Amino acid sequence: MADNQTAALVRAAIANVDIPGGDKLGAYKGLSEIIVTPSAVAFAISVEPGMEGAFGPARADAQRAAEAASGGRKVLVSLTSDKAPGKTGQQAPQAHGSGIPPKTLVNGVKHVVAIASGKGGVGKSTVAVNLALGLKALGRKVGVLDADLYGPSVPRLLGLEGQPVVREDELFTPMSAYGLEAMSIGSMLQGDQAVIWRGPMAASALRQLLRETAWGDLDILIVDLPPGTGDIQLSLCQQVELAGAVIVSTPQDLALIDARKAMDMFKKLSVPLIGLVENMSYFVAPDTGNRYDIFGHGGARSAADELGVPFLGEIPLHMAVREQSDLGAPVTAVMSDGPEAAAFNAIAARLLSGGALG
Ligand SMILES: Nc1ncnc2c1ncn2[C@@H]1O[C@H](COP(=O)(O)OP(=O)(O)O)[C@@H](O)[C@H]1O
Ligand SMILES: [Mg+2]
């Protein structure tokens, strides 16, 4: 059945759901559009801050009604309140002393590590994937969660094809590549659909990707965050007991203040800073072997010292890193004897020896 037909069926199916105040969901202005992808149906119910608890039964009714009309697709219903990202959603306890739900672990996952950066294009996703592979090479069971809902790149980087399978118990079976478990909203969206995810809705979708995936027993789940310090970061840090955050920066990024802003956010949210990685640190010319510090190499090490954060290492700017990324065959997996893989592996080893991962 065509996606737009399914959307219409779901809309009809949830129209009669009762909402607080005696109205019906179908006539409620806070109901988002119905997004249909090959494996999922998603919509958000936006409520006034403080009304999340009262809307809980409506959310559950809408979930059931949508499931009956979704043609077997997984249904993601987000309850969002624009003013308080990260504190809302179906799993928020209705009565909790401070109003902020307690941080919890992710089922089956020992350590969740966030990979963050002040801005985009510094190689955060590249580092996330290759670091995950380095940790795997060191004998750990590793998963990657692509939390960059606005610009998911994990499917491309790992060459993931198709959609994750939904199990009988409604959990996603994660996709797998090169021995890693991986989940990305990118595997469920087509074309430019990602842009419709508004902030609070995206935060709820992240929660579901994280919580409703059967990760199995993982030692480490690497979360590739979007750039900056937005609602997704906030939401992840508030919901999940993180082992810590790794900040990726280019030398010139640190000369500016973006990476410091990201570090500041994690400090404020009481998330340990595991360390700093300098990416695109220097360039070794393939023909002459000469090394060029094109961005003013070494900025990350001195910034790390200055901020009292461990320096985890530097990754050279190398054509193979980009080319292999574009091919969905990361250097650490397919050129595991090369110098680029060695750089990522060294950082993985430092991550393990640093004590943040037990
Ligand atoms: N060390 C590196 N050497 C060469 N190219 C790199 C390196 N790190 C990242 N890139 C390339 O830079 C671009 C941005 O990387 P990406 O990981 O998508 O950044 P982010 O996730 O921070 O936005 C990609 O084309 C990627 O292949
Ligand atoms: Mg990225």
Task: Tell me about this structure.
This protein is α/β, with parallel strands linked by helices and 358 residues long. The chain has twelve helices and 14 strands. It folds into two domains: 3-80, Fe-S cluster assembly (FSCA) (GMP Synthetase, Chain A, domain 3, 2-Layer Sandwich), CATH 3.30.300; 109-353, Rossmann fold (3-Layer(aba) Sandwich), CATH 3.40.50. Helix 1 (3-14) crosses helix 2 and helix 3 (124-137) crosses helix 12. The strands form three sheets. Strands 4, 5, 8, 9, 10, 11, 12, 13 and 14 form a nine-stranded mixed β-sheet that branches. The chain binds adenosine-5'-diphosphate and magnesium ion. Residues 117, 120-126, 153, 279-280, 315, 317-318, 321-322, 325 line the site of adenosine-5'-diphosphate.
What is shown here, in short?
With 358 residues, the protein is of the alpha/beta class. Helices cover 34% and strands 21% of the residues. It has two domains: 3-80, 2-Layer Sandwich (GMP Synthetase, Chain A, domain 3); 109-353, Rossmann fold (3-Layer(aba) Sandwich), CATH 3.40.50.
